[in-house]
Amino acid sequence: MYKVIPMDRPTAELISRWDFGSGYEFYNINEDPYVIETFLNGHYQTVMKDGVIFGFFCDGESARMHDDYEIDPDMIDIGFALNPSFIGQGYGRTLLELIFDYYADYHQFRLTVAVFNNRAIALYKKYGFVITDTFSEQIENEDVAFYIMLRNQSQDGCHLPSNDIQ
Questions:
Q1: Do 147 and 112 meet the contact criterion of CB atoms below 8 Å apart?
Q2: Range of the domain at 27
Q3: Which tens digit of pLDDT belongs to each residue from 4-42?
């Protein structure tokens, strides 16, 4: 069973130690105190699965990389991560479904993803996300390219029923 709860400090500290593995080190937080504090800003939710941290998600400004995004009251910006121990097992779909259910009142979803993250981009495309823009950010003295992707919640066949959500 999955349960969505507000992020708390002990959970934020545990997540900050996650290791996303070779090729995905970019997503490692490495116990950064600024990121831990950001996790506690009220826009982050933890997803628990049978007492284990399954993943987390955030919304609004916390999900945006910069301030140049168009704001639309029918659209929600989302950001999320799956616990690395669940990656590669098809659970990304489950986390997306939980997020869609949590924000069921919104008609459009927008997310930002690193261009190199092919496994995530493939999943998002399966759910009807389309690339609407690209940009680069200077991160630790390196240019990193990102896609902005958008999904219309009312798209037929893109929203599969979720199970065991509390």
A1: yes
A2: 2-108
A3: 999 999 999 999 999 999 988 889 999 999 999 999 999
Six-digit token string for 24: 């995905």
CA distance 100 to 115: 23
Instruction: Write the single-letter amino acid at 161.
Output: P
In a domain, 159, yes or no: no
Contact 78, 110 (CB under 8 A): yes
How far is residue 3's CA from residue 46's CA, in Å, rounded to a whole number?
Answer: 8
The CATH number that applies at residue 49 is: 3.40.630.30
- Residues 91 and 53: beta-carbon distance below 8 Å: no
Q: Could you read off the pLDDT of 51-88 as tens digits, one per residue? A: 999 999 999 999 998 777 778 888 999 999 999 999 98
Q: Is residue 134, in this structure, part of any structural domain at all?
A: no
Long-range contacts, stretch 152-155, CB < 8 angstroms, 24+ apart? 152/107, 152/108, 152/128, 153/100, 153/104, 153/106, 153/107, 153/108, 153/109, 154/107, 155/128
pTM (2 decimals)?
A: 0.88
pLDDT at 33: 97
Nearest to 76 by CA among 132, 160, 145, 151: 151
Q: How many domains does the chain have?
A: 1
Burial bucket for residue 140 (CB in 10 Å: 0-12, 13-18, 19+) = exposed
